[in-house]
């Protein structure tokens, strides 16, 4: 089976980039014929020229589309598996796949199909205005906190909706949780029979830690409002319990350091794992729905329980009372209570950590991930032969 993976890397990487890299590496190890067609946002300048290029390419990228058409003609893959497309790729390439008779599988790591900025969070709270009433609300709400950028994102989303790129051309969608499957069906009108659930592949550590010995509560992720880091900082102040923040390469630690918050800018999986393994628990205080929260599963893989917002996909990834504890999103006092509970109850901490480790081993292992991936591919090829 010959698969062409298509993706646009995010500037600074992130969970989605790690997830598709892991799927590609696993597919190669299991014997699939894998090729890639990629672009990288790091190639864009950070000034106005880069923003204009991103806007133009997201709408229609003639040079990229010509290069992609040539790749399809030359290599003739059995399936094109797309991931993140913006800003240097574009869903216009779906039409080229359809003309060439090549089916598309699309993985959803965020809410790009139903939200112009992909998060359903407008900076103040959860927002579904664009999905419910039209993409122009991204401009009206100035969701990018920059009117020209908000207009560009709204227009890009409106064009994709007008052309109905995803529903017309994608044979099968892969999402990471049941929540995302139901969301895609309800908000984007994708039939359930065209959606597969396949969690990220996570390898459980051979030597899980004793989380009751952890010296702090950890946070890992981008320093953006929807991640809810301010809620964790406030909960830490309420309880007096220590926290340690890990941010990806390119993050600016200065504002946090000025508040006295310990920060590590991680430079790869090993440094991030060290943060997890020193923690009493990982806190995922997200204010948006999430689609999986790969950091939660990664911490669980080391035997570390998770305290997560009771919202969206986090309800699927972190099983409440088994792998961790949940709290009301945005409620620092509720988070503080759960942090104090784990800090004061070593037995509970160990029990949750042990179940979390077992959950990763049984639910998120590579064998299950690859089998579900192959099932999705085979269903697409079967439909094509009918």
Automatic annotation (TrEMBL):
Residues 214-356 form the Glycosyl transferase family domain. Residues 51-200 form the Glycosyltransferase subfamily 4-like N-terminal domain. The keyword rRNA processing does not apply. Keywords: Glycosyltransferase, Transferase. SUPFAM superfamilies: UDP-Glycosyltransferase/glycogen phosphorylase. One of its GO terms (molecular function) is transferase activity. It comes from the Bacteria. This is Glycosyl transferase. The lineage of its organism: Bacteria, Pseudomonadati, Pseudomonadota, Alphaproteobacteria, Sphingomonadales.
């Amino acid at each position: 089976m010959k698969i062409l993976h298509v993706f646009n890397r995010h500037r600074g990487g992130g969970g989605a980039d790690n997830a598709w890299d892991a799927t590609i590496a696993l597919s190669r190890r299991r014997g699939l014929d894998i090729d890639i067609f990629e672009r990288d946002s790091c190639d864009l300048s950070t000034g106005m020229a880069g923003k204009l290029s991103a806007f133009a390419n997201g709408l229609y990228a003639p040079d990229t589309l010509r290069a992609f058409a040539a790749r399809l003609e030359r290599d003739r893959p059995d399936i094109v598996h797309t991931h993140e497309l913006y800003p240097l790729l574009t869903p216009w390439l779906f039409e080229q796949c359809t003309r060439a008779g090549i089916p598309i599988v699309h993985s959803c790591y965020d809410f790009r199909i139903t939200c112009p900025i992909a998060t359903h969070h407008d900076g103040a709270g959860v927002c579904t205005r664009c999905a419910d009433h039209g993409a122009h609300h991204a401009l009206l709400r100035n969701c990018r906190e920059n009117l020209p950028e908000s207009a560009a994102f709204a227009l890009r989303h409106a064009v994709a909706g007008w052309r109905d790129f995803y529903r017309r051309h994608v044979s099968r969608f892969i999402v990471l949780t049941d929540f995302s499957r139901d969301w895609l069906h309800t908000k984007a009108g994708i039939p359930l029979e065209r959606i597969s659930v396949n969690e990220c592949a996570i390898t459980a550590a051979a030597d899980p830690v004793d989380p009751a010995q952890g010296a702090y509560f950890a946070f890992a992720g981008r320093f953006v409002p929807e991640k809810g880091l301010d809620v964790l900082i406030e909960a830490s102040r309420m309880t007096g319990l220590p926290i340690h923040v890990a941010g990806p390469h390119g993050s600016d630690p200065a504002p946090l350091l000025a508040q006295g918050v310990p920060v590590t800018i991680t430079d790869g999986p090993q440094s991030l794992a060290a943060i997890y393994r020193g923690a009493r628990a990982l806190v995922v205080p997200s204010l948006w729905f999430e689609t999986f929260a790969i950091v939660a599963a990664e911490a669980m893989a080391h035997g570390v329980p998770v305290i997560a917002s009771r919202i969206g996909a986090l309800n699927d990834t972190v099983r409440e009372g088994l792998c961790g504890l949940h709290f009301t999103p945005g409620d620092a006092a509720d988070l503080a209570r759960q942090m104090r509970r784990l800090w004061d109850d070593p037995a509970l901490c160990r029990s949750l950590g042990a179940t979390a480790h077992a959950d990763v081993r049984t639910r998120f292992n590579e064998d299950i991930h690859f089998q579900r991936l192959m099932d999705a591919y085979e269903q697409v090829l079967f439909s094509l032969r009918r």
